[in-house]
Amino acid sequence: MAAMNDTRLGDHADSSADYVESVVRRSGSSFYWAMRLLPAEKRRAMFAIYAFCREVDDIADGPAPTADKLDQLARWRAEIDRLYGGGARWPTSQALTEPIARFGLPKSDFRDLIDGMETDAAERVRMADVTELDRYCDRVACAVGRLSNRVFGLEDGVSDRLAADLGQALQLTNILSDLHEDAIRDRLYLPGDLLRGHGATDTHLAGGAEAILDHPAVGPVCAAIAHRAQRRFEDAAALLATCDRVQVRPAVMMMEVYRRILRRLVARGWQRIAQPVRLSRVEKLWVALRYGMR
Length: 294
Prior knowledge:
Blueprint: H1 13-27, H2 32-36, H3 40-61, H4 66-84, H5 91-103, H6 107-121, E1 125-127, H7 130-152, H8 156-177, H9 179-184, E2 187-191, H10 192-197, H11 202-205, H12 209-212, H13 218-240, H14 249-268, H15 281-292
Parallel strand pairs: 1-2
């Protein structure tokens, strides 16, 4: 991938900024336009953060053997060390140099995200219990929220609480939305302790993820996870209401998109997990216009 190319864009800040913006634009994210509405310095920072997230996520979800994925993620970990030592080599990490200095972005959040991607890169993914699921959500979603909220300029107390609430709500919604797709890759993020509490045995849980989805325990566990996500969205909405609306536009847009997806998942129910739930481009555009232009 381009981020692994040490010479593609050299040390030119303008080129690295253009590169990360192109990553965001090519992703087709509905949040591109929300980021575009930010002041220039914050916009560049968010593009760089998003590009980093996109690149490590692409590694974890890519077709390479697990050993190769882990090697690429280890190279990213080494690049983050170089970045904080003043020696960034890759376009995305070069684009992160200024935001780290300007907004005080902590190294630990980038490392947490890589840790989460290492979980996803495994040949088989299982969450032993709710504690492990919480730790996973913190790494792959809340860490991104902590970085973003620093760029938005939120106060530390509100920033960390919002990152925890909204990050977990978003990730739990992703988990429920992608259950079938993940199971095909032998990934199951529903906690084992909850599944056992609804009648699944160790023998069931030792099987493939697709077979586990056929167990009657899956429905009530999904309902419990959905309820948890709904409460987290409510907590996040209450916190966002205390913030400067302009500061947190991208966060509000993301919340509104994912809340709609969660509502549709609940309405669809848990007997038709293979039936995808998505928002159309028109619906996403409507959310962008309603919540991004206010």
